[in-house]
Design a protein that fits this description.
The protein is globular, with a radius of gyration of 15 Å. The chain has a single domain, classed as 2-Layer Sandwich (Alpha-Beta Plaits). The model has no long low-confidence stretch (mean pLDDT 91). It contains four helices and ten strands, in the order βαβββαβββαββαβ. By secondary structure, it is α+β, with helices and mostly antiparallel strands. The strands form three sheets. Strands 1, 2, 3, 4, 5 and 10 form a six-stranded antiparallel beta sheet that branches. Strands 6-7 form a two-stranded antiparallel sheet.
């Protein structure tokens, strides 16, 4: 890794099919084993109701912090490859059930607006299942264009979120 160009990135992990807890544990290991990636932290796992269609199982979510010198789009390609390796099928149904969903939430302090990638993640402020695990591993985080994580959490109730043992 080129330590002069290291970026701290945050990845959201979610699953509600095929043993979700195992899916996330396997994904965390796969991300940590990527060349040019060093794991910094992984949050606890949280259970949450699905966003979108309610006729699907609850999700298990977490957030992982990494250090990398991969470019954002290269990191995204690695994450999508891990999703595929773990059985992710993109059905075109938005917010549908899935074996694994890996979202690049933050990439340093960069703001990225491309057809294939938007960072900070466009829904980050509305997702308790992202904000609470993110705050657990980065309590002083300031999110570009959105502000301090504690302010965002104050405006995003955690009622439907359950931290797993």
């Amino acid at each position: 890794m080129n330590h002069a160009t290291l970026i701290t990135a945050y990845i959201g992990l979610g699953s509600n099919l095929a043993e979700p807890l195992t899916q996330l544990q396997t994904a965390c290991a796969a991300i940590a084993n990527l060349a040019q990636v060093e794991e910094l932290a992984c949050s606890s796992f949280y259970q949450s109701a699905p966003v979108g269609p309610q006729d699907q199982p609850d999700f298990v979510n977490a957030v992982m912090a990494i250090s990398t010198d991969l470019a954002a789009l290269d990191l995204l390609a690695c994450l999508q490859k891990i999703e595929q390796e773990q059985g992710r099928v993109r059905t075109g149904i938005r917010w549908g059930a899935r074996t694994l969903d890996l979202d690049l939430l933050l990439y340093g302090e960069q703001q990225i607006n491309l057809p294939t990638l938007t960072v900070p993640h466009p829904e980050i402020r509305n997702r308790a299942f992202v904000l609470y695990p993110l705050c657990e591993i980065a309590p002083a985080l300031f999110i570009p264009t959105l502000g301090a994580i504690d302010t965002l959490i104050a405006n995003c109730p955690s009622a439907a979120l359950k931290k797993l043992a």
